[in-house]
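Hey, I was hoping to borrow your eyes for a little while. A protein chain has come my way and I'm curious about its shape. Take your time with it, there's no hurry, and the full record follows here:
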Amino acid sequence: GRFRTVDAEGKVVSKIHDTTPGRMIIGELLPKNVNVPYETANQEMTKKNISKMIDTVYRHCGQKETVIFCDRIMALGFAHACRAGISFGKDDMLIPDTKIKLVSDTEALAKEYE
């Protein structure tokens, strides 16, 4: 597939990659930054590789672009799950053992600012 990004001078460049349609869709969500190449998304999307992809975006684009990128991935996931008729409930979620402590610590911190 053809992927558009920017070079070091900020000019739009187009390259052809051997990839899959799903990876092209995720690649289109990547921020246009010379330090975030398409190869960041052109790999199997394991938990580890997704974390690396988000880390790469954060290191080279900052917090705002990373939040926007993650929101776009989340929206993409919900849209495709909706089209596919996939649903999940609260019982499908894994709740970490540390949840109670995290919630109480956060509530205490919030009360300090009230």
Remarks:
- The longest helix spans residues 63-84.
- The radius of gyration is 18 Å.
